Known about the structure:
Layout: E1 3-5, H1 10-18, E2 22-26, E3 36-40, E4 45-49, E5 52-58, H2 64-72, E6 74-80, E7 88-98, H3 105-109, E8 118-132, H4 148-168
Amino acid sequence: MGKLFEVITPQLKEWIAAQKIFFVATAPMSGEGHINCSPKGLDSLRVTGEDTIVYQDLTGSGVETVAHLKENGRIVIMFCAFDGPPKIVRIHGRGEVIEPSHAEFEELEKLFPAHAGTRAFIKVIATRISDSCGYAVPLMDFKADREVLDKWTANKGDDGLKIYRAEKNLQSIDGLPGLD
């Protein structure tokens, strides 16, 4: 049934690129802290190497993934086939937050559609790549990406985004440091 992969194969890379949504999960070191799982979309993920994926971290109401990665680096990305043959792929790894002041930020920015809401990139080096059946995942039709985030960031403007991030993205819900 499930397989382990040494690398992200060309076939896996192609399959990943075809998915319209992926899920990111992280957790703090403390057993008292909150586990986080977030859905992502908007053409915001790229496979950049045999063991590396990067996704565009867009402004949101929380900063859990960033805070957890800064604390401990643990992350899993999960993809599910909602059309075609059933399949789930999980990429466990070590994540790094690439903020605008980071040397790699501008180079990574070129790989993605422009979004005023881009606050960072999350770079994941895979430590375990696996698939499983996905037999219980429903079949669903993709209609369109939502335009709400782009409209919201445009309405905020650069200064409004800075203020919003200062209010909402400086620390996690558990008090861990978030964006610099």
